[in-house]
Specification:
By secondary structure, the protein is of the alpha/beta class. The protein has one domain: ComB-like (putative 2-phosphosulfolactate phosphatase, Alpha-Beta Complex), CATH 3.90.1560. It is 38% helix and 18% strand. The chain has ten helices and ten strands. It has helices at 30-39, 51-62, 87-90, 106-112, 127-134, 156-170, 179-191, 195-201, 203-210, 214-220, and strands spanning 2-7, 20-25, 45-47, 68-71, 99-102, 118-122, 142-147, 175-177, 231-233, 236-238. The strands form three sheets. Strands 6-2-7-1-8 form a five-stranded parallel beta sheet, sandwiched between helices. Helix 3 links the parallel strand 4 and strand 5 (99-102). Helix 5 packs across helix 6 (156-170), helix 6 (156-170) packs across helix 7 (179-191) and helix 9 (203-210) packs across helix 10. The longest helix is centred in the last third of the chain and has 15 residues, at 156-170. The mean pLDDT is 96. Bound molecules: D-malate (MLT). D-malate binds next to loops.
């Protein structure tokens, strides 16, 4: 049986990721935004760790077709950036250009799992698609759902998303759950009937609402609207 595990925060990700198929989850909002952007036609996304790195890379792109510079610090668009970290913004981009992207926790999580065999980008919006993809992972390998959390603290919405992916997996394959995976599944089952309301009550949900960004939370709460499975390969996120 395929083993499914969940890391509730990055600090719980094992050092050795050889043979691991990881799924990075940051529902509010980095991975929800990545899924929205790719569904809207962004060709690829280059995640980077710092604002300075993002600015330097965007300057480099200027001479070769250009890119959008996107991301956040403290949930807000950094000065000089084209876009913030709102999934809704990426649905309205005019040109099909790549995005250079930096966020506080989501891009940090992607860098943390660089040594995985395969890294996928998961959100509530593409959970079924992720599960479909994971159903074909060889049983000798393992699946680790990585919750980005918020600066070392558990983010409930990431755990719920891991739980939804697990529920979708159980419909498709024979899986063995670790205790962490059981906790994630149980927490998803408990709130499945009222996800939007629940997400608005989480720490990040409240913080975004206070900034007038409740629409982002509601967008991120939509389940299985995209069948895309973005993967992080050779420094780029693409489908
Ligand atoms: C992050 O990567 O830290 C987040 O996605 C924060 C945010 O909501 O913008």
């Amino acid at each position: 049986m395929l083993k499914l595990d969940v890391a509730f925060v990055l600090e719980l990700v094992p050092a050795d990721l050889a043979g691991e198929h990881t799924v990075v989850i940051d529902v509010l909002r980095a991975t929800s935004t990545i899924v929205a952007a790719m569904t809207a036609g962004v060709p690829y996304i280059v995640p980077v760790a710092t604002v300075a790195e993002a600015e330097a890379l965007a300057a480099d792109y200027a001479g070769r077709g250009g890119c959008y510079l996107g991301g956040e610090r403290n949930k807000l668009r950094p000065p000089g950036f084209d876009c913030g970290n709102s999934p809704l913004e990426y649905l309205q981009l005019d040109e099909e250009k790549p995005v250079v992207f930096t966020t506080t926790n989501g891009t940090r999580a992607l860098k943390r799992v660089l040594d995985s065999q395969v890294t996928l980008i998961g959100s509530l919006g593409n959970a079924a698609a992720i599960a479909k993809e994971l159903a074909s992972v060889p049983v000798a390998d393992e699946v680790l759902l990585v919750c980005s959390g918020t600066l070392g603290r558990i983010a409930a919405e990431d755990v719920l998303c891991a739980g939804l992916i697990i529920a979708e997996m159980q419909n498709r394959a024979s899986v063995q759950l670790t205790d962490a995976a059981r906790i994630a599944l149980a927490s998803y089952q408990q709130v499945a009937g009222h996800l939007p309301e629940y997400l608005l009550q989480t720490t990040s949900g409240q913080g975004l609402s206070q900034l007038g960004l409740a629409g982002d939370v509601l967008h991120a709460a939509q389940i299985n609207y995209s069948m895309l499975v973005p993967r992080y390969e050779d420094g780029r996120i693409l489908v």
